[in-house]
Description:
It is a single chain. By secondary structure, the chain is mainly α. Among the domains are: 33-130; 207-266. It is 57% helix and 0% strand. The chain contains 14 helices and no strands. The termini are far apart.
Amino acid sequence: MSTFLAGLTRRQDGADVLHTLILLADHLDVHGAPIDYARRRALFAARSRFIDVQTWLDLQRRLRSNPSLDAVHAQRWLFHTLTGSPAHLAHPDIAPATPVQRQQYQRFRWRILPPEAELLHRTAQNLLEAHTIDEPVQWAPRLPARALRDLVLPGPDTDSISVAQLHQAVPGGDFSIAQLAHTLNTTTTTAHVTYLLSKHPVDWSPPRFRRTQHTATRVGQWRIWYEHDRLSLQAIADREEASLATVRLALLKNGTELRPAGSQQGRQRRR
């Protein structure tokens, strides 16, 4: 922090940044924060495991084409989010120890998929509740707009790009963060886009894997229709606009015992 502040004093636009930091400190002194990070660090800083590895890997296998899946970034994300400390201060078993590992973790944070983010947030909330901590998982203070009106700050306003604009600009499949920044706005920086993607995860999966994700989210309902409502496989496929093979394979992988083809039970029940 001392190095950061010293660097600001040498920049032409640093004075207003320093003024903003002072305003932020004053705001926190007056209004406080809903998160007690000192308590969280005391509880979680020494942990090396925050999420069940198999649960995380099972989700990634459904969502990603990358064969080299790893749960360590998920552990780092949960440590980082819960304690507010940078990931390299985590337990040695999960802390990124080299510059390459730190870069890989930062890349994970902005390439996280919505279902992964949902699982991580739910896991973090469960960990807090297990310690009877009634706090939001994450929180950020917001200064009144009037306090910043006359300040000249470097970079674009983080609210200048909406979530809808961000989601529309992200292509399906792999993409360059620099190209996305250029697509959104010629003045948008990669740091700005990285922040937005970390805050608002985008489904950048290739079309094939988007279909896989949709199947994974719908198979529970398909099983109810098949077992409880006695719909046929074809009726389910027609209702979901999916192929018969997709429905059959998804139910088999879900552990559903399929009825013999052409059986009376397999026919759709009359209403």
